[in-house]
Amino acid sequence: MTHRILTLILVCMATLASWSVSAQGLRASPPSSSSAALTPPPANGQQADYIVAVVNSEPITNSEVRREVLRVRQQMAQQRVAQPDNQVLTRQVLERLINQHLQLQRAKEIGLKVDTAAIDQAEANVARQNQMSVPELHRRLAQEGMDVKQFRQQLSDQIMLTKVREREIEPRVRVSELDIDDYLREQNRNDNPAEQLVQLAQILVAVPEGANAQQVATLQAKAKRVLERLRAGEDFAKLVLEVSESSDRTSGGLLGLRTADRYPPVFIEATQSLPVGGVSELVRTGAGFHILRVVEKRRAGMPDMTVTLSHARHILLVPSAQLSQATALARLADYKKRIEAGQADFAELARQHSQDGSAREGGDLGWAYPGQFVPEFEAVMNALAPGQIGEPLVSRFGVHLIQMLGRREEQLNPAQQREVIRGTLREKKLDETYENWAKDLRARAYVEMREPPQPQ
Fold first, then answer.
1. What pairs with residue 429 in β-bridges?
2. Which of 92, 127, 136, 228 is least surrounded by Cβ atoms within 10 Å, i.e. has the fewest?
3. 3-state SS record for 350-379
4. Are residues 206 and 69 in the same domain?
5. Domains in the chain: how many in total?
6. Which of 417, 399, 394, 390 is nearest to 312 (CA)?
7. pLDDT at residue 279 in the model
8. Distance CA 62, CA 66 (A)
9. How would you list the strands of the sheet with 283-285, edge to edge?
10. Angle, CA of 135, 113 and 121, to the nearest 5°
11. What are 130-143's pLDDT values in tens digits?
């Protein structure tokens, strides 16, 4: 039996950080003073279970380390990443487990809990990503030697870790207008061509090798007429298909987003003073006469200023004393079946049942930029094809049913560009704040290292 299914499942579990639902902490009873280890490491090399570390009176066992080492190695193999020495990886895994125990303990301290329905939903998502039913997932887990109860506990822990990080980290992170200004100034001070990203599109009127002066003049006149049509307002992409003789004509003449030093110097000289959307004068090269359009310009450190907008609608049910999360999930699953069978209309169901301000618009959320919705909502939305309805999902706001209506590309205006930069800086600050928070938890904890782990 190969480990391919288990690898896929473990990789899916590793992506559960996008889930944002309530979670509950688990903490073992403190070990008695007479039990320094469940079982001492045997001299014959056989793997018996025993305690390798104690974190605020909560034990970490050798079997727990072994399971995590296996999970990490499976992920590395799936991603074709070079694997470290066994002792090095084991030490890294033990440190990670210590940090996870500390964070789960913190979740319990601040009252976070896991809803069984949230674990059910996470389990269903793992099954769906592996293109199988939940019973089939359970059978595969058993075949791979993983207990279903243990698997669900790991899902619960991942959900809880996500929630405690959101609760503890996100409120501490702020990005000011001054932060954005400083970032822009730093980028603008950098005039190294190797760090300037440019996307150009071209229309090429080719000049055959060995063409005489009359032929060259005729082709130049043709290129000038094309340029005049562009100046008069004709669409660049349309003229690419009509006129251009380059191999990139089927992609709108796009030459690719690349550093300026990877373009012919004559192309950069002709376009360096042009704004995005600007069209150059004729540029002569050995290939012929080029008309260049500036599609995008940015520093290598700047985020992409062309974004994909998503148009979706949703139905939101908010769990309450009268409506459990499990019932809300079942109700939305029923709505999905009815809509797909042509027995109900999405917009009408949204107007009747959705507990969101968009209900009066049939659940229509309008055109949205990346990052506009919470991560768990966007993760499902972004995976949908236009017209497709996703499975019900749980977010911090409730339970959603999403339908993707369409997508489009758009160049950001200056104000929107600042918001993209704000998001980039915020992600960086979140990472830094998380690292400091995790270190602070560790510094204030009692951690006792016992027998070293002995993974396979």
1. none
2. 228
3. HHHHCCCHHHHHCCEEEEECCCCCCHHHHH
4. no
5. 3
6. 390
7. 94
8. 6
9. 254-259, 196-206, 288-299, 283-285
10. 25
11. 778 888 889 998 88
Pair (133, 113) in one structural domain? yes
Identify the pLDDT of residue 23. 26
Range of the domain at 393: 306-411
> In terms of pLDDT, which residue wins out, 56 or 79?
56
% of the chain residues with pLDDT over 70? 85
* Per-residue pLDDT at 379 exceeds 60: yes
- How many residues in total does the chain contain? 456
Three-state SS letters, 290-318: EEEEEEEEEECCCCCCEEEEEEEEEEEEC
Structure tokens at 444: 């204030």
**Domain assignment of residue 201, yes or no:** yes
In a domain, 431, yes or no: no
- Token readout for 406 is 């369409």
Strands 283-285 vs 288-299: parallel, antiparallel or unpaired: antiparallel
C-alpha–C-alpha distance, residues 78 and 8, integer Å: 8
The number of C-alpha atoms within 13 Å of 67 and in the hemisphere containing its C-beta is 15
Q: How many CB atoms lie within 10 A of CB 410?
A: 13
3-state SS assignment for residue 286 = coil
pLDDT tens, residue by residue, 254-308? 888 888 888 999 999 999 888 888 999 999 999 999 999 998 887 766 666 677 8
Q: Return mean pLDDT, the chain.
A: 83
In a shared domain, residues 60 and 153: yes
Proportion of the chain in helix, strand, coil states, percent, rounded to 5: 50, 20, 30
| Same domain membership, residue 159 and residue 62 | yes
* Rounded-to-integer distance, Cα 205 and Cα 284, Å: 10
- Looking at the DSSP bridge assignments, the partners of residue 55 are 58, 447
User: Cβ(16)–Cβ(158) under 8 Å?
Assistant: yes
Neighbours of 215 (CB within 10 A): 12
| pLDDT exceeds 50 at position 36 | no
The sign one gets for the Cα dihedral 82, 88, 93, 98 is negative
Provide the pLDDT confidence category of residue 68 given band limits of 50, 70 and 90: confident
Per-residue exposure over 5-18, b if at least 16 CB sit within 10 Å of its own CB, e if not: bbbbbbbbbeebee
Could you tell me the pLDDT band of residue 41, with boundaries at 50, 70 and 90? Answer: very low
pLDDT digits (tens, 9 = 90+) for 158-180: 999 999 998 999 899 999 999 99
**Does a structural domain hold residue 319?**
yes
